[in-house]
Fold this sequence. Notes:
By secondary structure, the chain is an alpha+beta fold. The protein has one domain. It has helices at residues 40-54, 86-106; strands at residues 4-8, 22-26, 31-35, 66-68, 73-76, 116-119, 122-125. The strands form 2 sheets. It has a 5-stranded antiparallel sheet with strand order 1-2-3-5-4, covered by helices on one side. It has a two-stranded antiparallel ribbon with strand order 6-7. A hairpin with a 4-residue loop joins β2 and β3. The chain starts with a strand and ends in a 5-residue tail after the last strand. The mean pLDDT is 91.
Amino acid sequence: MEPVSELDASLSDPHHGGRSVIALRFNSGFKLIYKPRNLGLDVAYGGLLEWLNGRGVRWPFKVLKVLNRGTHGWIEFVEHHPCETKGEAENYHRRAGMLLYLLHVLEGTDCHCENLIACGDHPVLVDLET
């Protein structure tokens, strides 16, 4: 097992008896997020995005890897990256529109700037509690 080189526990308010979201960085530079809640919704959402991507959407969604352990789980870290070109910015906005429509259909709430990360030309939701 690779050693953890850095922990950041300031990513959320305390949940479920004082537990909070934690970012872990390993010696290799790999980062992972620990969440103190059931990530079943995150797994289902990722499955929906994979299903949509598999149907040939023109601008595929970024699907995060999730490991759900029932009472807690681990999710792939999403690094913020700006768009490098006008084309990437256009694709970002197309995907943002697709995501907004998807959230409307799913009756999603709590989608605000703290729960959305711009990762190049992908808007990525990172908190799916509601």
